[in-house]
C-alpha cells in the first residue's frame, strides 16, 4: 500500500528549476532562453576545463548571437527530446508535450505573495466568502507555498503548507494547521484530487498554480482557438491510467494555453465519457513585475452545480521570503 | 483532509487522580488588581469585536455567539433531564503593533442556567493561579481571558509572551506529550480539546536553526487540571480517580479528611521545557523535554488511629460528629509533584496514509499503591507512555484514523497494582485492619491500553461535517462513542448535533459516566 509510483506524480525531470524571474514572451523566445541556460551550465562546457563564470560569459555571447536561429530548434528539443541538429519545426509543428513543457517552465517569479478572495457558491445558490494570504518561494529543489486563512472567523488561522519537490522520486510534503486543535497535522500528498478547503479547485491545482505534472498525461495538440479574444494553443491531456484518473478526479483535460503568456486561459476537465466535469476560466491575466499573473479565475463545477470565484490582489514578486516563512512554526503562528 | 473547525478527537485518558478541593476564599489586593486588569481586557476585546470594522488593516476582530442545550439520554423518559443550557460569547482581537510585533487576545463569557455542569461558584483557588482565574457572575455566569499574548519576531527568533496554549505531540486527543497546558474536565472529555485546554502565562521562544527549530518554554503560571466538583454532571466517581470516595466507604465518611492542596511556590517550582523539531528525509521529528508539575495531584495517605486528631484539624472535610465503629481515620494530603519528562514524536506520509506517533518517558513519578503497610500509599516509578496512529485519506472528503495508546509503569509491585473495586459493607465488617485489603484501597493501575477510532466525512464543499469517534479502554473494557454533525445553514450560522454514549464498568474512566449519556443541540453564529 506504500508503493505508489512517485515518478508519475512529478514534474518533468528534464525541466530545470527557474531561479530568476525572466520576462515571458512568445513560446519561441522563451524556449530560446531555456536553450541558453542548458548550454552555459551543461556537461559539455565543463569538459573544457575553464571556470564556470568564464564559460558562462563566453557561452552567453556565443549563444546570444545565434539565438534567433536556434530558437525553433529549442522548441523541437523540448517537445520531442531530439538532438539540436534536427530539422527545425515551425509553430504549426509544435506538439502537445512541447507546449505543456513550456507552460510548466513559464516564469513564475522566485517569490510571490498575494491576497486571494474566494466566493464559493453552493448548488442551492448560497454563497460565502473566504479570504486568504498565499506565499510562495521557488528554489533549486522545490517550490514551497503556504496559505493562511484570514476570513471568515470560522476558518481564520487555518494554514496549509506544501513542499512540491522538483525531484521526481521524492513525494511532496503537506501540513495542515487547524486553529481549533492548535495542532499541525501531516496530511497525505495523495489527496491531490480532493477539493481544497471546500472550493472547486483541487489541492493539485492550488499547489501547481497553473502548471501540470507532465507524466500524469499524454499530451496532444488540437486545433488552435481563441479565448476571450486571445490566441491560444489548444492541448488535450489524457490521463495515463485509471488509477491516476481516480487520484486526479478526471480522465482528460482540454487546455487553452495563451500564446503570449503561456498561461492556461481555460481548462475543461472531463470524465471517462467525455462529459465536462469542471471548467477553470482565467478571465483576467496581467503582467506584474514581468510575471504573468492570473487575477481573476472562475471555476465551475458542472457535475456538482457549484462554482468558486478567485480574485487575487496585493500581488508582490519583490519581497523576499525566507525559509522560516515556510516552516511549521510559522504555520502555527499565522501569516508572517 | 479538510477543515473541520475542531471536529477532531477530544478524548483524553486521565492518568491520575482529580482534585477534591475545599478551601475558603480570601481576597487580597493583588487579586483585585488582577481582576480589574482582566475585566478591562475582556471588556476592551468584546467591545472591539463588536464595533471595530473587520477589515481594518492594523486591527482584526472576530466574535461568536452560541447557544447549547444538552439533555441526558435515558431509557426512562421521565429521567431525561436538561444537563446544560448554555450561552457562550467569544471575542477575538488581533492588532499589528509593528511589522514584526502582533498582539492577540481572546475573551469568553458563559452563562449556564441549570447550573449542573459547575454547580455554584467555581472554587479555583486550589488549581488556578491568580492571573488565570475566571470571574463569576453569580452561580451561573462566568468570564475568562482565554488568551492574551504579544508575538514578536527578530531575525531568526520568535518570542510569544503572555497567556497562550502550547501544544506538543502528534496524537489526536490522547495526552502523551500534550501536557504543557492543563485541562478543564467540566464536560469530561466531550468538549473540544482546544476549548477545554487551559492557557497559561508563558514565555515561549522559538529559534529557527535552518532545518530545525528550537523552542524554549518558561511557565511561571501554576495552574493545574480542573475537575468537575461534587454534584456536577461529570464529577468523577470511580475509586481509582477518587481515593476519598473509596476510603469514605471503607472507614466512614466522617473519618476521611482531605486537606487542601498547596500549589507549589518559588522560582524553582515553575515549569521549564524545550523542544527541538526538525524535518529530515520526509520525517517530522521532535525531541521534547519538560520539567513540570503533574496537573493532577497525588494523595499522600496517612492512617490516623484516633478520631480526635481529625476533629482538631481545621481543614477537615465534613463533620466529625459521629465516631465510627472502626476508630480509624484516613488523612489524604494532595500535592502536585514535580516530574521530568523526555519525549519524542514522529510523522510521515506514504501515499494515501500518514503515520504518526509519540513517546514520553516520565522519571520517578509517584503513584498510589494499595499496600496498607506503606506509610503514605505512594510508590515511585518511571513511567513510559506512547501512541501510534495511522490516517487514511484514500476516499474523497473522508478521513479514517486509528490510534493505539499504551502506558506502563516500571518496577511497581504487581500485588499492589491489582484492579480496584468499590468496597462494600463486607470490607468494613471485617474489622479495622482486615478492611484494608489490597483490593479495597484506591490506586492507579500499572498499565493501560486505549484504542481510538475516528471517521470524518465532509459534504457539500465542507459546509457540513459528520464525525464518529470511538475510544475504548482495553483494561477496563469501557469506552465512549461520540457522533457529531455540523450543518452550516449559511455563511454565519451553524447548527450542531452531538450524541455522547458511555459504556463499561462504573469504576472505569469512561464507565463511571455510563448513566450520563447525553444529546446536545447547538446553534452558533460568528462574525
List the main descriptive attributes of the protein structure presented here.
heterodimer, A: 336 residues, alpha+beta, 13 strands, disordered N terminus, B: 527 residues, mainly beta, 18-stranded antiparallel barrel, three-stranded mixed β-sheet, 5 helices, 24 strands, 9% helix, 46% strand, globular
Provide an overview of this structure.
The complex is a heterodimer of chains A (about 325) and B (about 525). With about 325 residues, chain A is of the alpha+beta class. Chain A is built from 7 helices and 13 strands. In chain A, strands 6-5-4-3-2-1-13-12-11-10-9-8-7 form a 13-stranded antiparallel sheet. In chain A, helix 1 crosses helix 3 and helix 3 runs antiparallel to helix 4. The longest helix of chain A has 29 residues. The radius of gyration of chain A is 20 Å and the shape is globular. The relative contact order of chain A is 0.15. The N terminus of chain B is likely disordered. Chain B has 5 helices and 24 strands. The two termini of chain B are about 25 Å apart. Classes of the chains: A alpha+beta (about 325), B mainly beta (about 525). Chains A and B meet through strand 2, strand 5, strand 6 and helix 7 of A and strand 1, strand 16 and strand 17 of B.
Amino acid at each position: 500500500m506504500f508503493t505508489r509510483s512517485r515518478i508519475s506524480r512529478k514534474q518533468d525531470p528534464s525541466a530545470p528549476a527557474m531561479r530568476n524571474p525572466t520576462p515571458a514572451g512568445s513560446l519561441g523566445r522563451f524556449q530560446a532562453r531555456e536553450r541558453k541556460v542548458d548550454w552555459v551550465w551543461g556537461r559539455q562546457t565543463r569538459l573544457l576545463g575553464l571556470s564556470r563564470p568564464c564559460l558562462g560569459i563566453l557561452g552567453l555571447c556565443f549563444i546570444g548571437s545565434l539565438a534567433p536561429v536556434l530558437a525553433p530548434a529549442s522548441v523541437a528539443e523540448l517537445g520531442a527530446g531530439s538532438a539540436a541538429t534536427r530539422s527545425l519545426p515551425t509553430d504549426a509543428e509544435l506538439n502537445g508535450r512541447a507546449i505543456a513543457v513550456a507552460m510548466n517552465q513559464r516564469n513564475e517569479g522566485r517569490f510571490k505573495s498575494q491576497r486571494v478572495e474566494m466566493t464559493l457558491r453552493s448548488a442551492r445558490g448560497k454563497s460565502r466568502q473566504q479570504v486568504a494570504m498565499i506565499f510562495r518561494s521557488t528554489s533549486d529543489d522545490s517550490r514551497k507555498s503556504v496559505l493562511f486563512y484570514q476570513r471568515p472567523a470560522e476558518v481564520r488561522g487555518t494554514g496549509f503548507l506544501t513542499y512540491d519537490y522538483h525531484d521526481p522520486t521524492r513525494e511532496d510534503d503537506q501540513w495542515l494547521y487547524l486553529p481549533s486543535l492548535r495542532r499541525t497535522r501531516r496530511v497525505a500528498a495523495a489527496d491531490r484530487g480532493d477539493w481544497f478547503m471546500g472550493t472547486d479547485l483541487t489541492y493539485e491545482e492550488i499547489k501547481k498554480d497553473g502548471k501540470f505534472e507532465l507524466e500524469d498525461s499524454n499530451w496532444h495538440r488540437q486545433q488552435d482557438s481563441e479565448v476571450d479574444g486571445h490566441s491560444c494553443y489548444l492541448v488535450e491531456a489524457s490521463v495515463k491510467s485509471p488509477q491516476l484518473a481516480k487520484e486526479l478526479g478526471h480522465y482528460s483535460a482540454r487546455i487553452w494555453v495563451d500564446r503570449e503568456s503561456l498561461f492556461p486561459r481555460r481548462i475543461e476537465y472531463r470524465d471517462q465519457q467525455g462529459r465536462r466535469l469542471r471548467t477553470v476560466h482565467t478571465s483576467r491575466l496581467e503582467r506584474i513585475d514581468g510575471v504573468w499573473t492570473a487575477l481573476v479565475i472562475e471555476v465551475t463545477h458542472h457535475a456538482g452545480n457549484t462554482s468558486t470565484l478567485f480574485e487575487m490582489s496585493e500581488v508582490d514578486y519583490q519581497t523576499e521570503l525566507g525559509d522560516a516563512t515556510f516552516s511549521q512554526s510559522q504555520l502555527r503562528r499565522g501569516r508572517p | 483532509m479538510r477543515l473541520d473547525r475542531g471536529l477532531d478527537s477530544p478524548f483524553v485518558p486521565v492518568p491520575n487522580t482529580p482534585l477534591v478541593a475545599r478551601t475558603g476564599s480570601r481576597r487580597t489586593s493583588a487579586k483585585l488588581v488582577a481582576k480589574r486588569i482582566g475585566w478591562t481586557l475582556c471588556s476592551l476585546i468584546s467591545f472591539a469585536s463588536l464595533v471595530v470594522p473587520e477589515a481594518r488593516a492594523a486591527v482584526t476582530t472576530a466574535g461568536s455567539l452560541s447557544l447549547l442545550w444538552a439533555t441526558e439520554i435515558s431509557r426512562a423518559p421521565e429521567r431525561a433531564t436538561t444537563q446544560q443550557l448554555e450561552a457562550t460569547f467569544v471575542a477575538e482581537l488581533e492588532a499589528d503593533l509593528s511589522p514584526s510585533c502582533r498582539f492577540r487576545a481572546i475573551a469568553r463569557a458563559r452563562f449556564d442556567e441549570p447550573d449542573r455542569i459547575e454547580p455554584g461558584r467555581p472554587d479555583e483557588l486550589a488549581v488556578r493561579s491568580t492571573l488565570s482565574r475566571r470571574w463569576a457572575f453569580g452561580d451561573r455566569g462566568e468570564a475568562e481571558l482565554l488568551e492574551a499574548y504579544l508575538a514578536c519576531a527578530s531575525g531568526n527568533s520568535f518570542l510569544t509572551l503572555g497567556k497562550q496554549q502550547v501544544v506538543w505531540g502528534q496524537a489526536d486527543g490522547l495526552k502523551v506529550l500534550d501536557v504543557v497546558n492543563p485541562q478543564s474536565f467540566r464536560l469530561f472529555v466531550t468538549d473540544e480539546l482546544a476549548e477545554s485546554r487551559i492557557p497559561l502565562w508563558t514565555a515561549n521562544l522559538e529559534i529557527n536553526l535552518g532545518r530545525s527549530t528550537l523552542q524554549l518554554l518558561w511557565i511561571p503560571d501554576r495552574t493545574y487540571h480542573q475537575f468537575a466538583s461534587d454534584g456536577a454532571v461529570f464529577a468523577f466517581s470511580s475509586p481509582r480517580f477518587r481515593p476519598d470516595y473509596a476510603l469514605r466507604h471503607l472507614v466512614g465518611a466522617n473519618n476521611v479528611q482531605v486537606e487542601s492542596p498547596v500549589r507549589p511556590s518559588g522560582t524553582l517550582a515553575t515549569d521549564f521545557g524545550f523542544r527541538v523539531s526538525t524535518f529530515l528525509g520526509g520525517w517530522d521529528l521532535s525531541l521534547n523535554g519538560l520539567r513540570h508539575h503533574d496537573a493532577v495531584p497525588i494523595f499522600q495517605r496517612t492512617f490516623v488511629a484516633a478520631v480526635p486528631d481529625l476533629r482538631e484539624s481545621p481543614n477537615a472535610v465534613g463533620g466529625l460528629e459521629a465516631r465510627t465503629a472502626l476508630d480509624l481515620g484516613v488523612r489524604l494530603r494532595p500535592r502536585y509533584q514535580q516530574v521530568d519528562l523526555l519525549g519524542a514524536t514522529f510523522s510521515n506520509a506514504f501515499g494515501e496514509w500518514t503515520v504518526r506517533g509519540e513517546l514520553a518517558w516520565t522519571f520517578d513519578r509517584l503513584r498510589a499503591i494499595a499496600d496498607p503497610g506503606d506509610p503514605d500509599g505512594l510508590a515511585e516509578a518511571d513511567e513510559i507512555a506512547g501512541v501510534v496512529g495511522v490516517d487514511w485519506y484514500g476516499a474523497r472528503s473522508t478521513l479514517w484514523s486509528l490510534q493505539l495508546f499504551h502506558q506502563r509503569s516500571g518496577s511497581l509491585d504487581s500485588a499492589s497494582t491489582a484492579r480496584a473495586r468499590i468496597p462494600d459493607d463486607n470490607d468494613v465488617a471485617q474489622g479495622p485492619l482486615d478492611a484494608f485489603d489490597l483490593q479495597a484501597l484506591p490506586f492507579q493501575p500499572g498499565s493501560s491500553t486505549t484504542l481510538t477510532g475516528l471517521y470524518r466525512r465532509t459534504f457539500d464543499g465542507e459546509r457540513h461535517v459528520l464525525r464518529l469517534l470511538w475510544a475504548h479502554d482495553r483494561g477496563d473494557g469501557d469506552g465512549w462513542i461520540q457522533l457529531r454533525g455540523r450543518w452550516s445553514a449559511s455563511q454565519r450560522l451553524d447548527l450542531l448535533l452531538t450524541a455522547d454514549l458511555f459504556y463499561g464498568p462504573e469504576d472505569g474512566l469512561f464507565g463511571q459516566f455510563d448513566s450520563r449519556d447525553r444529546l446536545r443541540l447547538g446553534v452558533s453564529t460568528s462574525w
